[in-house]
Amino acid sequence: MVNWISSLPNFSAYGTPVYFIYLILALLPLGIGLYFGKRFSWYEALVSFVFIFLMFDGSSWQQGISLIVYVIYETLLVMFYSRYRRQQNSAGVFYLLAGLSILPLVIVKLSPAMVGHNSLLGFLGISYLTFRAVGTIIETRDGMIKEISPWKFIRFILFMPTITSGPIDRYRRFEKDYRQVPARGDYLNLVSKGIFYLFLGFLYKFVIGYFFGQRFYPFFEQLAMTNHSLFSWSMLGVMYTYGFYLFFDFAGYSLFAVAISYFMGVQTPMNFKQPFKSKNIKEFWNRWHISLSFWFRDYIFMRFVFMATKKRWFKNRNALSSTAYMLNMVLMGFWHGITWYYILYGFLHGFALVANDWWMRFKRKHLPNLPHNKLTTGIAIFVTFNFVMFTFLIFSGFLDTFFFS
Amino acid sequence: MQEQIINILADATGRDAADFSDASQDLFTSGLLDSMATVSLLLGLQDAFDVQVPVSEFDRSQWNTIEKIEQRVKELQNA
């Protein structure tokens, strides 16, 4: 069995242009059904199973096993908590369950740093599935999710277009889309939007992202390694080419996930909204990897502030907001992985959010007559863009190679 | 009720009540409300009107103007 599975071909999500042809052909009956106002749930489950199977078979078969074990584990947790919550509501049980649902991810993230190799529990997409599972438990705690079945939960966390890298949807939003088949006009609208996103995604990921990632970035990388000077034009080249590669690659991928979701009649949220035209760092996080930053905003930042305000942990409002920003972003840094550069990346963004708030207050209080025009807006965009690019250079891990190898 | 909401908003954001004279302006896109101030707003509404709004119930598009806040509070009071 194992030999057979590991000998099968493996298709990573949206890896090659031909993948899209198979995927769209397979989804065609579903689309026809939606056009006629019917959702063929069983057919959808079958197609999803086949494509998820193809992502985790062949050389990735061990990840496939981990995925199955993980999904069973999380489903049991969610179902147990949902049943418990209908009777009782103690904070201790909530924290225990939330902790247990994050546990596999924590082990996977800590393993490389602690034991020197990747954990067997890991599989591609574990962090995205964990966000969905924990979010579901939190909303159950809040009484917003009243009833959930194993089948509905599995359908949600394993939603095929978004399984490996998001966008991170929310249970209630997803379930509403899933239950309601869109009206014909709306569905056609979704399909035409989806087609546009698909082609924009091709341009982003397979053309622009390819050139930045496979051509420009390696060129500057090599140059910077030979020069070996930290403050050099080649280092600047590394910084910008990596930053653009990161954006076009990830935004392209997210566009695919959104487009395929639309074809399936589910309006998965957009992940990027022209992040490089942000005028400050706060705006940036409303435009960059939105489903992740909103997840952190709603489930970490706001809940922490809510509790801290209620329990009066802080005398000073600004001290509270600064602590919450740092907590939020440093945690996000840790989530990316336990390396100095991810954590520093989170720290810098937390610090920038604190500094931004301070500057906004200072400006309102002491510089009410500061001009506001095209030039100052241009400066704001320039500063934000370059700060972000600098943090991406840190995020890239290039400096780790640069200094330590 | 609207006046009370404006006072809560002014408190939550540290601004003047005059900044909230337009009951239909979008509080989020205008930059008046951020996540921090939103929490203060929710706690303020809780104290003033005795309504419970869990953070995960807070869908920004449903709470983004003074008019909508008033509407939501009334709904929650009657629920």
Automatic annotation (TrEMBL), chain A:
Q: Which InterPro entries match?
A: Ac/AlaTfrase_AlgI/DltB, DltB, MB_O-acyltransferase, MBOAT_fam
Q: What is its EC number?
A: 2.3.1.-
The membrane topology of this protein is: Multi-pass membrane protein
Does the record carry Transcription regulation as a key word? no
GO BP annotations of the record are: lipoteichoic acid biosynthetic process
Q: In which pathway does it act?
A: Cell wall biogenesis; lipoteichoic acid biosynthesis
Tell me the domain of life.
Bacteria
Q: Can you tell me where the transmembrane regions are?
A: 20-37, 42-58, 64-81, 93-114, 120-138, 194-212, 233-264, 284-306, 341-359, 379-399
MF-aspect GO terms: acyltransferase activity
> Which keywords accompany this UniProt record?
Acyltransferase, Cell membrane, Membrane, Transferase, Transmembrane, Transmembrane helix
Q: Which GO cellular component terms are attached? A: plasma membrane
Q: Which family does it belong to?
A: Belongs to the membrane-bound acyltransferase family.
Q: What does the protein in this record do?
A: O-acyltransferase that catalyzes D-alanylation of both teichoic acid and lipoteichoic acid (LTA). D-alanylation of LTA plays an important role in modulating the properties of the cell wall in Gram-positive bacteria, influencing the net charge of the cell wall. Catalyzes D-alanylation from DltC carrier protein.
Output this protein's name. Answer: Teichoic acid D-alanyltransferase
Q: Which gene encodes it?
A: dtlB
UniProtKB/TrEMBL annotation, chain B:
Q: In which pathway does it act?
A: Cell wall biogenesis; lipoteichoic acid biosynthesis
Entry's Gene Ontology molecular function annotations: D-alanyl carrier activity; ligase activity
Question: Which species does this protein come from?
Answer: Limosilactobacillus antri DSM 16041
Instruction: Indicate the principal place this protein occupies in or around the cell.
Output: cytoplasm
Superkingdom of the organism of origin: Bacteria
Domain Carrier: from-to ranges: 1-77
Question: What keywords is this UniProt entry annotated with?
Answer: Cell wall biogenesis/degradation, Cytoplasm, Ligase, Phosphopantetheine, Phosphoprotein
What biological-process terms (Gene Ontology) are attached? Answer: cell wall organization; lipoteichoic acid biosynthetic process
The record ties this protein, via Gene3D superfamilies, to: ACP-like
Q: Which NCBIfam families match?
A: dltC (TIGR01688), PRK05087.1 (NF003464)
A GO cellular component annotation here is:
cytoplasm
**Family designation:** Belongs to the DltC family.
Per the record, the gene is dltC
> Which residues in this protein are found as O-(pantetheine 4'-phosphoryl)serine?
S35
* Alphabetized InterPro entries for the sequence: ACP-like_sf (IPR036736), DltC (IPR003230), PP-bd_ACP (IPR009081)
Q: Matching PROSITE patterns, A to Z?
A: CARRIER (PS50075)
Q: Which SUPFAM superfamilies match?
A: ACP-like
Matching Pfam families, A to Z? Answer: PP-binding (PF00550)
Its localization reads: Cytoplasm
Name this polypeptide is given: D-alanyl carrier protein
* Record's comment on post-translational modification: 4'-phosphopantetheine is transferred from CoA to a specific serine of apo-DCP.
Q: Report the protein's function.
A: Carrier protein involved in the D-alanylation of lipoteichoic acid (LTA). The loading of thioester-linked D-alanine onto DltC is catalyzed by D-alanine--D-alanyl carrier protein ligase DltA. The DltC-carried D-alanyl group is further transferred to cell membrane phosphatidylglycerol (PG) by forming an ester bond, probably catalyzed by DltD. D-alanylation of LTA plays an important role in modulating the properties of the cell wall in Gram-positive bacteria, influencing the net charge of the cell wall.
